[in-house]
Amino acid sequence: MIGKKIQGIRKEKRMSLSEVAEQAGVAKSYLSSIERGIQSNPSIQFMEKVGKVLGVSVNELLMSADNETLRQQLDDEWLQLAEEAMKSGVSKEEFKDFLEFNKWKKQSH
């Protein structure tokens, strides 16, 4: 999955495998084996180097297609609600607690 993501971004940026490997300071053969799925667990350092060359964060490299679809489905209103919650001091833990309570409430009725 990570390899296909790296390969897709690299091709979008019209960069060759050699260019990315050289600029990132990683072995071309290793990058190739990651892209082809022969190796599947690159280190964080490797992903940081390649991500920097490709102009993306490690999180973006790790994000699956499903997560991207979900992100696109988050409309502006949801994003605004999350932003308002953050500004009002609601912590992630409090928000998670609310969601758990809500699930519990639905199950018990």
Automatic annotation (TrEMBL):
Residues 65-103 form the Sin domain. PANTHER family: HTH-TYPE TRANSCRIPTIONAL REGULATOR, HTH-TYPE TRANSCRIPTIONAL REGULATOR SINR. Pfam families: HTH_3 (PF01381), SinI (PF08671). This is Helix-turn-helix domain-containing protein. Residues 6-61 form the HTH cro/C1-type domain. The keyword Iron does not apply. The keyword DNA-binding applies. GO terms for cellular component: cytosol. It comes from the Bacteria. SUPFAM superfamilies: lambda repressor-like DNA-binding domains, SinR repressor dimerisation domain-like. One of its GO terms (molecular function) is DNA binding. Keywords: DNA-binding.
